[in-house]
Amino acid sequence: MKKKLLMALLVGVLAVPSSVSCFAAESTDAAAADSDEEEETEETEAEDKDTTAKKKENLKTVGEKKDGCIAFKLRNATSKKIIGLAIKTADETEFTENMMEEDDSFELKEKKRIYFSKETEENAEENTDETAEDKAPTYDMRITFEDGTSADVHGIVLEDLRTLTIREKDGIVYGTYKLKSTKEKKTTYDTEKAIADQAAADAAAAQAAASQPAESYDSNDYSYDYSGEDYSGGDDYSGGEDGGDGCLDNGLLG
């Protein structure tokens, strides 16, 4: 009886580590699944602390620091090097020239400090007056990669962020950041996807229209086949019933 009781206790003790191991494995898998989001959250929160602000001196810069310029950090989280960067306001049609030097590039995971200046002080004052009672202006950014391809990121609130991270998902390049004023996390993924979907739909419609057979019509063909018509018989207009010559009488002419 004592042996049976001892064996039962031994089995129970051995079963406990097994359950703990299974629980630990499940916890590890869940943590790995959320690692990317946690990494971004920790990085964003760290930027709000003064201790992290000192590290900005070690970052390489793009653009020239001027009075009134917009300063922010840009991080490359895509799978390709970035060799070109251009910025414009959302209501402008043309991007600025490439802000990066010819031999400069964003390596993978690299972060740099960007200094962007608006074209003129007058434009800056006008934009400030127009948006003071509305909302902060938004900007578009054109990213050029080392393979020659480029992508536009739309609707970025550059003046209210510290770090803009450029990402890529399902072939769509987009940006993520956190607003300094409200701590709200923002992403442009939905905007970029909607633009890409619309462009694909337009291209498909154009291709379908081009593939339709054109209607054949020769506007220069005025020929008509009269070979089937018989004009040998019918009314005889060579003379009247009285055997006249068919000419008008002199009396009628007179």
Automatic annotation (TrEMBL):
Signal peptide: 1-24
Compositional bias (Acidic residues): 34-48
Chain intervals with Low complexity compositional bias: 203-230
Domain of life: Bacteria
PROSITE patterns membership: PROKAR_LIPOPROTEIN (PS51257)
Basic and acidic residues: compositionally biased ranges: 49-58
Span list, region Disordered: 26-58, 203-254
Keywords in alphabetical order: Signal
Protein name: Uncharacterized protein
Species of origin: Blautia faecis
